[in-house]
């Protein structure tokens, strides 16, 4: 047994299980729900997770740092939109694609 205090591995001797059909009030034990969840993110971890997955690649992080460096007047090479618009477009497309994929997984899991 991996953890007695959680009872996740069937702590103790196996007992026969009685299933009461149509009488949920007679059930004396709680069992975990039998559900499948294929989602990668939840509501709170969606945006940080997507941004982390994008900026863990070298070139995406490089272009973010290059765009941030344009706020320093001595390092400015051109207009700010020439750095931020392409980066924002790539991030927007990625976020939309991940959102559509998550919604599809959510709908499929509900079925």
TrEMBL record:
Q: Which GO terms describe its cellular component?
A: endosome; plasma membrane; trans-Golgi network
GO MF terms, alphabetically ordered:
ATPase-coupled intramembrane lipid transporter activity
InterPro entries recorded for this chain?
ATPase_P-typ_TM_dom_sf, P-type_ATPase_N
Quote the protein name from its UniProt record: ATPase phospholipid transporting 9A (putative)
What topology does the record note for this protein and the membrane?
A: Multi-pass membrane protein
What are the alphabetically sorted keywords of the record?
Answer: Membrane, Transmembrane, Transmembrane helix
According to its UniProt entry, one GO biological process term is: endocytosis
Q: Name one Pfam family in it.
A: PhoLip_ATPase_N
Tell me where it resides. Membrane
- List membrane-spanning regions: 79-100
